[in-house]
Amino acid sequence: MSSENHNTDEETPPFDWKMEMDKQWKAISDKYAEFYQDNKHLFSFSRVATLLGGSLVLGWLISGIYIIDQGNRGVVTRFGAYAETTMPGPHWHIPLPIETVSDVNVEQQRYIEVGYNDVSRLSKSSGTSQESLMLTTDENIIAVRLAVQYQINNARDYLFNVKNNENTLKQLTESVLRGVIGRNNMDFVLTEGRSQIVAEIKSEIQEAMDDYQAGVIVASVNLQDAQPPEEVQGAFEDAIRAREDKQRLINEAEAYSNEIIPRARGASARILQEAEAYSAEKVAKAKGETERFDQLLVEYEKNPAITRKRLYLEAKEKLYASTNKIVVDTDQPPALYMPLQQMSTGQTHTDSVQAEPDSNSEQSNVAKHNSRNAVSNELRPSRSR
Asked: pTM of whole model > 0.70?
């Protein structure tokens, strides 16, 4: 069985691809030859030339279509002269060689650097460029590194008014930087004057670029580094530490002053208020005494004897008010000196003490009665007042 199949395969002739391709090509050629013979008038030279020329013109016109991306501007020039500026979106212009379009990015943040060499630009710390060395007004040399960020705000001016804008801006920035540094001393540049210097540099660069009509707006200026040369770096650090110590001592003195001065002012204000109160008190008391004297004078003029007696008794009352004894003025010799405190508690003390039966008890009672009468007689005029 297998032998019969094997013999059958050997008898089948191989497929000829070349012959088959020739047959297909001949069939196609015959069809196109037949089409050409039937439509021979369509393939005249004039018609072919017209069709070819129209295709070329159409392709040339289509090549004038262009699209401006967002954030860009298209500057159209006609034979090299400015024609118009187009906004983002699809547009058409007369194709080459009549018009060309330059695509300018007006939102890109561009930057230039002044004061860097190849080594310092990579390491940001090592190497000092001759471009960075600048002279201050006090004849000191410092190394300054500056970076300027800018944008294009007018694509037409940027392309046509200034040649090589980036190089022009860098040279202008270096010139302005040296001028500003040269107008200030070293301490001002390295310490508190950095922000003022940056503002001056930015203002002068923008003013100069506006005069050039360069179509550039300065976004920011960064004074990235300002320090003395490496040869005097150690001495300068010592000077900075001394300046910091000076400022610290000044701050401490100001803090102490701010603490002491308000306290002294408060004490001064308190003393002034006390003095004013004392003065007001004395003045008021003097006015009261004056009015009282005037009133007494009126009463004295009406009845001098009574007023004189009343003043005398009031004076004695004030005098004896500060003592704890009573002097009894009678016709008989003084029989008793009794303390005021014992007068207020005499009755209680008499009741608690048992009287001694002697011959002088009656005389003592008579003396007490006489002293009480004398005191009442002496005080009666003041009561009648």
From this structure: no
